[in-house]
Design a protein that fits this description.
The protein has ten helices and three strands; from the N terminus they run E-E-E-H-H-H-H-H-H-H-H-H-H. By secondary structure, it is mostly helical. The chain has two domains: about 1-165, no CATH class; about 170-275, Tetratricopeptide repeat domain (Serine Threonine Protein Phosphatase 5, Tetratricopeptide repeat, Alpha Horseshoe). Helix 2 runs antiparallel to helix 3, helix 3 (about 110-120) runs antiparallel to helix 5 (about 150-165) and helix 8 packs antiparallel against helix 9. It is elongated. This is Sel1 repeat protein. It holds the Pfam family Sel1. InterPro entries: Mitotic_Regulator, Sel1-like, TPR-like_helical_dom_sf. It comes from Slackia heliotrinireducens (strain ATCC 29202 / DSM 20476 / NCTC 11029 / RHS 1).
Length: about 280
Amino acid sequence: MIIDHEESAGPQQCPIEVLNDSSNSLIPHVLVSHPKSDEPDSTANRTNPTLYPPPNNRDDEGYLALKEGALYYVEGMRLLSSEKTSESIACFQAAEIMYLHAASRSNIQSFANLGYLYHYDRCAGAYFNSVDPSKAESPSEALISAVLELGADERAYYCFLHAARRGHAESCYMLGDLASSGKGCQKDEKTAFEYYMRAHDLSLKYDSVIWGNAAVRIAMCYERGIGCQKDLNEAHAWYARAIKGLDSSTHTNGRGKSKMLDAAKNGMKRVEQRLS
């Protein structure tokens, strides 16, 4: 069994078949399948299994593995919303393996996705950990083998860090959250503030949800003096900016949009009351 389960998690049947003839690979070769329907009770009725990596190994940038991982993750979230906890964990475990395949091919988005999977402990501690560092054949695989020796919080930190260093804006504000709380890393409020600023600046040209999310966090920092000098006028300006970004987004509820928009509006009211 390649997936280690904590006693609290209990044994689960992972909806991905691991092949025994992949002993020379850091991440095992697998057969993937997905439900034929989006209904919660359709898990048993799955598509015919397909091999990954494909026979010609043509997934150089990891986008196929990323897509397969995302499908498993969505399936896991659907099952979780239906309170099918054990089934959801099995899907998240499958998502982890596919994201690791993508990450081994230096796919930056997959590192961010792994960061979220570990940050929210989607597998309840039952993560993939059966790797032989000597099988690492690239810098990405060497990083993966090192990360998989850590706990979930530390895994999240290093996955977000790797993506952030390569310009992934969303990973930057997640790193800010980790640095602000000290989860998986040393608490450092100044560094958290800097990551929020970097997330905002990196995403300005292409994603108002990301820079809107970052702006809310920056506003909170100015309001409370977290990692910066307390400044209610700056806080007010950043809350206004956050509302503009989140309100203008075409995403219905992407990346916690509704929750963060409410936080921005409430923050604006608090600051206005204190400035009046």
